[in-house]
Structure formats: C-alpha cells, structure tokens
Amino acid sequence: MPANEDYSKQTILITGLNGYLAGRAAELLLREGYRVRGTVRNKLAGQKTKAALCALGYCADDIDVVHVSDICRHDAFDLAADGCSAIFHLASPVADIWALPPAEVVQISVESTARVLSAAMKASHTIRSVVLMSSSAALFDLPFENRLYTENDWNTTSEEIVNRDGDKAGGFHAYLASKTAAEKLFWKFRDDYRPPFAMTALQPTYCIGPPLIPWKSTTDIPYSNSGFWKVVSGEEIPGPMMVYGDTIDIRDVARMLLWSASNPAQADGERFICSSAVGNGQAIADILSKRMPSLNIRRGVPGQGYSADYKPRMGVGAFDPNKAVSATEMDWIPYEESVVDMAQFLQRYI
Questions:
Q1: Please, which residues bridge with residue 203 across strands?
Q2: In the chain, fewer beta carbons within 10 Å around the N or the C end?
Q3: What is the pTM of this model?
Q4: What is the CA radius of gyration of the chain?
Q5: Quick one: pLDDT at residue 257?
Q6: Domain check: are 350 and 332 in the same one?
Q7: How many CA atoms lie less than 13 Å away from 38 in the CB half-sphere?
Q8: 55-64 pLDDT, tens per residue?
Q9: Nearest partner of 321 among 252, 262, 261, judged by Cα
Q10: Are residues 140 and 151 in the same domain?
Q11: For the chain, how many structural domains are there in total?
Q12: What is the DSSP letter of 240?
C-alpha cells in the first residue's frame, strides 16, 4: 500500500472494483471522504477504474488497486482487508454463468465469500462491517409467483437443480443457486462464529443506471440495461424483462452499501431488498418521448404494461422495498430520473 497513506481516513475494501456497481460505490465512498481499496482479477481493468475516478477529481493516493488473480485462494483477500474498516463483497462470477459449468459458478461464489469472511476475521481489530452483495435471485424459486416477495423469502430449489442436472441446469439456475448458496454461507458464518463486526446482505433487483466507465460497445451493455439501448437507438419497443420487471439504480445500491457500513448496529443481521420501480420498454419509450423528444423513439402503445407511478401492479409478482426505505428514511432515485440519465449516457453510442 502507498507509504503516504492517510490513516485519518477510513479505508473500505471493495471486491471486484472494476464491476458495474463497484465503480459507482467507489465514487460515492470517495465523495464522502473515505479511502477506497479495490481488488480486481484483471490489473488493466482496475487501473482503468482508478483513472476514471481520478478524472472525476479524486486523489490517486486515496485509491488502491490490489490484484487478486484467484478469488477462491485461501488467503485471497487477507492483505487487502488489513486495516480496512469495512468490506463490500461485490466480486461474483456473473459474467461466467453461461460459460462455466453451473456447479463451478456456485463453487466460486461460495468459496470467494468464505475467503472474504476469513479475511475479515483476521482483520477484525479494524473491520466494523461486511456487506454482501446478494441478489433478488436468492429470494424466489421458478416459476416466479404472482405475489410480493420480502426479505423473509428464499430460493429453495436452484441448488438442488444444479446438483441434480449438472450442466443441463443452465446459466439461470446457476446464477440463482450461486447467489443463494453464497448468502446461506454468509449467514451460517455469522451464526457459527458470532464475529465482532456487523454483517448485512443486500438483494437488488435488475440494476440500471449509467456506469462509471463506458462500455466498449453496445454488445457489452448488460441485460438489465439492454431495453434502454433498444429504445434509445430507435428499435422496436422491447418486451418484458426476464422473470420480473423490478429495477434499482446502481447509485441507490451504492448508497445502501455505505448506509449499511455506516450503521452497523442497525444493519447487523439484516437483509435489504433494493428495488425502486417496475418499468418496461414501453415505460422507457413514454418517458423519453416526453423528456428527450429529439431522440428517434418509437411510440409503441403508450401506457401499456406498467403503472403510472411505476409501482408493482396487482396480481403481478414483484419485490417489497419498504424495509430499506424505512430503515434509511430515504426514498429511491425516481425512475424517470434514472431513465433520462441512462438515455443521456447511451447517446454516445448513437
């Protein structure tokens, strides 16, 4: 670590610093006066993230990039965690769910979480909080039910399906199983060891919003934002998202990460759903037709398939975000603001 490190500032470790959400989380931490230490599997990607943060005016000395080539190695995060006040565990094999065998996806997710918790215990003289980026995927089974899911719900079948069907289980069950298994290990660790630091898990729905670093091309836009690009580029209005339509701005998830670490007594032992709005391609088209009329937006069927307030519709499966809103006493970024911000970002690709 830098010899001139400012020890008056708390350092928070983010695993997977070059990820979509992690960049905005790092930006928020720096803005709030923290130092950021981030682990990456790809050195170049980590340096690009640091350069992007420095371009926003943040000090390079406040940003450490630590290369961790194997996030499942027994001591993978030990050095990185040393001296930190909190850990945000965001690294996850999401990009590999369709490339690796499902069982391997689950193994990586579980073992990397175990390595983070081991490192936190070794650094427990300074660590006050560990926040796990779980997912709404850990809350439901397939088929998705037409009800409001809460933090009391769990996926109960995907791990069994992966174990039973092997490669035939497919990437979607691999993702559901990996998030569920990692979070189950997380809570079992808390029950078994009663660590001196707080432990919190977040369950975001589909993440939307502008990334810190532009994607190389439109083919790199993640599925959760693919509908935005189709609308902005003038394609046909896309159909419903896979499984559900709930979304959350990554800047809100970043805020929940920091809130959890800053309020360890209140957040310890808690799960928090992060979900702000239920939209679809038609909602995006309607918003942009009104707010950014210069875009070549297809009209589709205005008002179809979503509620005017972007809340869950009766009889349609969705997620209840009220626990997080009540705990933080803050509402989410308005959906229309997220849509406009995302469209303005995507204009660079037109």
A1: 273
A2: C
A3: 0.96
A4: 20
A5: 98
A6: yes
A7: 34
A8: 999 999 999 9
A9: 252
A10: yes
A11: 2
A12: P
